Amino acid sequence: MKRLIFIISTFVAIALIIFACNDKSKEPGATTLSKDDSLKQQLERGKYLANSVVNCADCHSKLDTSKFSAPVVPGTEGGGGLALHEILPADIPGKMWVPNITPYALKDWTDDEIARAITAGVNKKGDTLFPLMPYHGLSRMAKEDVEAVVAYLRSLKPIEASFPARELFIPAAAFGPLPDVDYKKNTRPDTADKVKYGEYLVTIGHCTDCHTPVTKEKMPMMDKFLSGGQHFKLPTFEVTVSNITPDSVTGLGTWTEAMFLAKFRTNSTPEMLASKPGKANTLMPWSFYGTMSDSDLKAIYAYLRTVPPIKNKVEKWPTAAVASR
């Protein structure tokens, strides 16, 4: 009996030693995040994504279109109200106002309903969102990043504003198929793999929505991926989107990584964003993308170097616009 007790005690002691060796939280320097710290990190990630990568406020706020890159009017972040049919009359078949996405408007929405609107293009009522909302790219966003953006939207200052329902002259079926992706199964690529992570950022940052040519039906021409050429005619200026493939003559083929980063930093300075370029303006939201981290911009640069180079010379502004600058 004593022998049996000794054997059992020995096995228990060995098991406790193995458990202690494998318990990383007990190692010197190991840290375990508290619930508050985890929520703080989630909010920080959501704020970064919403304001530097997926750029929610770029549409869902009031913009000062008289200034370079149309920066957000301070205090209107997330409050909506842009009359898209006035800003892009050639692209909106009817009337449409950008909705409020602050807690005032989303107070009756569940987190899943917000996530569905972001990644699947379907709102709380079950209506298909107009595809200016970039849900095709956002459908590829990692589950943890979607949840971070939703948490951040919940933290915005409530803005008490409501806008008319859209009045479109085409059926929702004309918007094309909805994304066939379950974001809950998506994972974020390892940031150490610059090309893969850069592709992820380009996708959720919906770069292709402007930088890829489209057909008459507004479908992306993937054989000309990121080669530019889309032309936008706004009430105050016209602009054609640039070629960002690594073509050495008409694209970014001769750009170094340092040149690429400098472009984002220079075009997002307070001085540049306060300037009034008149007809030589841009739709590129430099005030958002210019706040991306160096590591993320380097990842995007690394990915863009891998896409097929396409020769497509783009005249950014019509001659008349440049002459009047």
Helix fraction, binned, reads 25-40%
Rg calc: 24 Å
> In percent terms, what proportion of residues is strand?
under 5%
Instruction: State mean pLDDT (0 to 100 scale).
Output: 88
Listing every helix as H and every strand as E from the N terminus to the C terminus, the arrangement reads HHHEHHHHEHHEEHHHHH
Sheet of most strands: 2 strands, antiparallel
Termini, distance in Å? 98 Å
Quick structural overview:
The protein is mainly alpha-helical and 325 residues long. The protein has helices at 2-22, 35-53, 84-87, 103-106, 111-120, 135-138, 143-155, 194-204, 208-211, 257-266, 270-274, 286-289, 294-304, 319-323; strands at residues 94-95, 167-168, 231-233, 238-240. It is globular, with a radius of gyration of 24 Å.
Report on this model:
The protein has 325 residues and is mainly alpha-helical. It has two domains: 38-188, no CATH class; 189-325, no CATH class. The chain is 38% helix and 3% strand. The strands form two sheets. It has a two-stranded antiparallel sheet. The chain has a two-stranded antiparallel ribbon with strand order 3-4. The chain starts with a helix and ends with a helix.
Could you outline the blueprint of secondary structure elements for this entry?
Blueprint: H1 2-22, H2 35-53, H3 84-87, E1 94-95, H4 103-106, H5 111-120, H6 135-138, H7 143-155, E2 167-168, H8 194-204, H9 208-211, E3 231-233, E4 238-240, H10 257-266, H11 270-274, H12 286-289, H13 294-304, H14 319-323
Antiparallel strand pairs: 1-2, 3-4
